[in-house]
User: Fold this.
Amino acid sequence: MILNQRTQALRAQVEDAVKDLQTLTQEIGHAELAAMVGELRLRMTEPYMFVVVGEVKAGKSSFINALLDAGREICPVAPQPMTDTIQQILYGEQEEVIVVNPYLKKVIMPVDILRDIAIVDTPGTNSIVEKHQEITERFIPASDLVIFVFEAKNPYRQSAWDFFDFIHQDWHKKIVFVLQQKDLMTPEDLAVNERGLFDFAQKKGLQQPTIFTTSAKAELSGHFDQSGFSNIRDYIRTHVTGGRGAALKLQNNILTSRQILHRIREGLDTRTAQYQADISFREDIHQTLDNQEKKSNHQSEILIENILNGYDRITKNIGQELGHGLSFPALLKRSVLGIFSKQASIKEWLDEMAKKLETHLNAELRAKLSDGVVDLADSVQQMAKMIDLKIRNSSTVVKSDSYIFEDIADKRAAVMRELQEAFARFMSRSENFTDERLFPENTSVSPNIAAGSGAVIIGLILAAATKATVFDITGGILSTIGLLFAGITAGVQRRKIMNGYQEEIARGRERMSEALDSKLKGYVRTIKGRIAANFTELEALLANEEEQIRHFEAHYAQLRTRFDELEKTLDLN
Assistant:
């Protein structure tokens, strides 16, 4: 086919744009879409392509033989189905059959009409032969006209109309209908079926269906006035061989490319929606962890406050008793009575006071810890439970059968599945709620809690940790106070002793508050960090998604602009 210079230049631009479109489909990683664009590129330099489709025994092969008027049978015709491969019939000076693969062959024929058109003969739409449907569908996007051949006596078979939906809805291809074998019907019955086909096609979305009624038998036997093929040939001359074929083919190539771009756009929209949902999910996880950390820290503060209140009450009571016992009358009485009776000496009395302080503090602090630590433990575990629930309820937008991006859907599904499984393992292992570096004094507890779970486990760990912390602090206070008491004699000033006691109690209180705050909040922070660490792979996926989506969006926008401009240029021509 000879093209003018303007059409040649325009085709070169279209070919270049389609090449870039194929690059995009390859970058996306969708093999089927990339192969589809590859087929489109291969067929851009071929003549205007008719794809003939229909059910088995609808008369497709006979129709093609009659249309080509080659004087002999090109497409085999027999009582049983004969078209077991797709045949692409092209013009060539020498007759030749090229077997492309077991399901596709090229038939080269020196037939004049093939100088302007190429014909693709396909197996029946109801054929169950492996690969037929798949390969037929690969030809459809690159086709310029689809000829639907029906048996004149029954144009309503479901498999043919299912295939029509694929062609029309997915690719918006130009379609004409042929009611073949009209010689087997009366004119009245044929008119009824022709009208029925017209109405049915309109319901399917074609505004003005083009329908031809033909008899290949009449055409091949020379009854040209009865065959109906003159109407078909007039249509071809008007729309293709009359000089419009090249421009129409370019127009079809642009339309098909835009349809592929539309599919990519839909896939990108879905992928972006999934990315945004995952980002919202990740931000929700961050916010939930922050909120739960605040709640857990609040529980820590309540526990610390209760412990310190108990500490204040016990040390105040002991301080009052100590102050009373150090008064001059009390000391004098104790000194005199200690000479003449078994009344405890001042030193023994002070030792008893130190033991009393220790006993009361231990009892009080144990009680406060027992009351408060379970609330804190429950708050910490609630943090993990809420995250677990959010993981299980995370939103999936991209489905595993998403047409364009099933690879990213599968990858995301694997990441989310691993996240769920990993977090379930995290929740089930008590060692995730312990930390030898945080609680080195608590190592003896861990091996013994395997039988427990939940708040009970965490409560035991926290109780052991906080008790060790509290008693370490109180032990230091008592040692210091013991040193103070050891030097007491009747001649020591009461005020100095009491001041030393109050100062040591205050320092001990401050150390206890700081140590508990550091230990408990550090514990909460550690658990929060361990929970957050489960999301490392998801965060890597999201970072890659952001980059990929940005790249694909830019490539898509550039290609859309190019095809818009090409379409306008073609309209001007």
